[in-house]
Specification:
By secondary structure, the protein is α+β, with helices and mostly antiparallel strands. Helices cover 23% and strands 34% of the residues. The chain has a single domain, classed as Thiol Ester Dehydrase, Chain A (Roll). It starts with 11 loop residues before the first strand and ends in a 6-residue tail after the last strand.
Length: 149
């Protein structure tokens, strides 16, 4: 279990990889972002992207899963008040494999709530070509390590 005290500025965590299929891109977009370049292969070919691409929100959701599996499910996380910046830098296409990493940018113990601290990190997602497709500046709250009995 990782607690607030286990995160240090400069630490890097490799969060794993995940491939995305055309079917997943279409399913997500039909439900949540039905723009033509996400749901219609023919119209996507005519778009500035030249073919079907994943919704940025789908890419962010896949990243969230990698973050959960790589860090959050084994941490004393207390949620997040949000994020400071989310950027979609390159399109994600069918059969791309995404790899995520997180670097700790700052840590701050809460003055008003001594049971927790705030960890700011930068998350970077690359595709199989090594191109950065997404970055976000995350804010996470983590419980402080309990005092030893």
């Amino acid at each position: 279990m990782r607690f607030f005290e286990d995160f240090n500025v400069g630490d890097v965590y490799e969060l794993g990889s995940r491939s995305v299929t055309k079917e997943e891109i279409l399913d997500f977009a039909r439900q949540f972002d039905p723009q033509p370049f996400h749901v219609d292969e023919e119209r996507a070919k005519e778009s500035i992207y030249g073919g079907l691409i994943a919704s940025g929100w789908h890419t962010a959701s896949m990243t969230m899963r990698l973050l959960a599996d790589g860090i959050l499910l084994d941490a004393a996380g207390m949620g997040s008040p949000g994020l400071d910046e989310l950027r979609w830098l390159k399109p994600v296409r069918p059969d791309d494999t995404l790899t995520a990493r997180m670097e700790i940018a700052s840590v701050r113990a809460s003055e008003s709530k001594p049971d927790r601290g705030v960890v700011n990190s930068v998350i970077q997602v690359t595709n199989q070509k090594g191109e950065t497709v997404l970055t976000w500046k995350a804010i996470g709250m983590y419980r402080r390590r309990p005092p030893q009995a």
